[in-house]
Amino acid sequence: MASSVITNEEIAKILREIGEYLEMEGEAFKPRAYEKAAEAVEALAEEVREIYKKGSLKALENIPGFGVSITEKVEELIKTGHCRYYEQLKKKIPVNLGELSAVGGLGSKNIKRLYQELGIRNLKELEKSARAGKIKNLEGFGEKSEENILRGIEFLKQSGGRFVLGLVMPEINGIAQQLRNLKEVKKLEVAGSVRRWKETIGDVDILAVSNKPKAVMDFFVSLPQVARVFAQGETKSAIKLKNGMDVDLRVVSENSYGAALNYFTGSKDHNVALREIAIKKGYKLNEYGLFKGKKPIAGRTEKEIYKALGMDYIEPEMREMVGEIGFAQKHQLPKLLDYGDIKGDLQVQTNWTDGVNSIEEMAIAAMSRGLEYIVITDHTKRLAMTGGLDEKRILKQMAEIDKINLGFRVKGLGFRILKGTECDILKDGSLDLSDKILEKLDVVGVSVHSLFNLSRKEQTERIKRTMNNPNVDIVFHPTGRLIQRRAAYEVDMDEIIKIAKKTGTILEINASPERLDLRDQHIRMCVEAGVKMSVDSDAHSISHFGFLEYGIAQARRGWAAREDIINAWPLEKMLNFLKNK
Ligand code: DGT
Ligand code: CA
Ligand code: CA
Ligand code: ZN
């Protein structure tokens, strides 16, 4: 590393690692001091080496958190590219801290012990020891910690460290709500990829307005789910949760809240494009506001920033640099499907097959969430492990649905249960139930649950054949992918969308957090082709109706409007569409 080019990022990393090493040594206050200094460096707009060049030691000492000994070390880093103190610490415990501390639940004290007692220096060695069952024998570790470590490693390998949004959202919402409840918090929002409803997220970026930031930060770093505290300051704190997920909290001023929200919501590419537009108009845009020279033009809200830039407000779900900027400038953005627009759920399983709850329980849960109807779509007989229904049992189920509906009507409830199926697609594209049965159902959905490895041509033909059956209404989870677990099967989506247009077949946006299938690009293709879609929870228990929110977000990420989504329409209109297609 040449001495003249050390960056703030590198300085911060070394300061932070010194802090971690000192924590391993059991030092009381110094670790925090180094962390604070690291954080101060990260917050600087100017490179530390430039500050030093201009004002030498005196200027360095003015950086917040820089005491005598930290200043000395940073000076050494700038001049030589090295820090002897850091190297000595590293020699004593020569581990890859970055790698090991990314494993959920592994604190610096444990990293030290694993090195001293088992010689573990990096992720690979950690995995080897854990697999050999060596860790559980260490005092204070045990079977459970070893499992957690293996799970943490597995997670890092499979996911590249990213989390499936729907699986961590309840925890994120919980943290955000606890913070909002503090009297010291005036405003608070989760920004970053969470606000854009990305399918997976790298970390969580929270933004708040407060006039007592210290109290907020103290509360934040002492949440019970916290595994480590990377940084604690008045404007920024950073933690790792026990599940391995990083969370940053920033406190900003009310006047720049909109600008900060816009900046930290991203995406990064979207931000860069906005900044360029600002420059062309003679402004400057950053996380503090939109400025003309030194004069603030906008910054309190996102809306006023977009307006000042001559564009319509862009919903966070669209901020992925997929054409949204041009549409906003021409005032041609679509009006997206709204979170309250879904009226019914077209894929619901019950305890007649692999669901947990009865038909009636599912109906009541849906009702209490404000839905007007559900379609019962239990599996069919080929999916034997779910107890899939044959012709005889589905007829029985239909009679049962009639009975429950009658009961609802007697009670004066407007809610309706419709009869449907999630019918298995067989190898050649024929179906697992006879047309005589399918004809009797209100809504027929079909799914690929087998032969994921067919060639692209065969798979596409197989699905096309079902779409050409006039009894078939919807193709459920059309590509079969499971996020981070299973790739989509090979299928020609251009062709499927073409046939969907011709036959009037609905393509599903499955809202189950690990499916989100169709994905955003496919939804956009359907919107452009005029192919209708549905947003379904694929609920297997009463709590799963909550998934609908992820499906709506996915629809919005694909620019879908209310008219594109048939279960956002009144029930009669939807049924007419299916009948007359
Ligand atoms: P993630 O966490 O990987 O799921 O994705 P994001 O989008 O949450 O990214 P993250 O956490 O690295 O940063 C949050 C936002 O901050 C990001 O969406 C845009 C903004 N941001 C971060 N770094 C930069 C940068 O270098 N330039 C600009 N213009 N914006 C940035
Ligand atoms: Ca993030
Ligand atoms: Ca972040
Ligand atoms: Zn199922």
TrEMBL record:
Superkingdom assignment:
Bacteria
> Which protein are we looking at?
DNA-directed DNA polymerase
- EC primary class: transferase
The terms under GO molecular function for this entry are:
DNA binding; DNA-directed DNA polymerase activity; phosphoric ester hydrolase activity; zinc ion binding
Please name the taxonomic classification of the source.
Bacteria, Candidatus Harrisoniibacteriota
A Pfam family assignment: PHP
InterPro entries hit by this protein:
DNA-dir_DNA_pol_X (IPR002054), DNA_pol_lamdba_lyase_dom_sf (IPR027421), DNA_Pol_thumb_sf (IPR037160), DNA_pol_X_beta-like (IPR002008), HHH_MUS81 (IPR010996), NT_sf (IPR043519), PHP_dom (IPR004013), PHP_phosphatase (IPR050243)
Q: Which GO terms of type biological process are on file?
A: DNA repair
Per the record, what are the reactions this protein catalyses? DNA(n) + a 2'-deoxyribonucleoside 5'-triphosphate = DNA(n+1) + diphosphate
Give the Enzyme Commission number.
Answer: 2.7.7.7
UniProt source species: Candidatus Harrisonbacteria bacterium RIFCSPLOWO2_02_FULL_41_13b
Task: Extract the Gene3D superfamilies matched here.
Answer: 5' to 3' exonuclease, C-terminal subdomain (1.10.150.20), Beta Polymerase, domain 2 (3.30.460.10), DNA polymerase beta, N-terminal domain-like (1.10.150.110), DNA polymerase, thumb domain (3.30.210.10), Metal-dependent hydrolases (3.20.20.140)
Residue ranges of domain Polymerase/histidinol phosphatase N-terminal in the record: 344-427
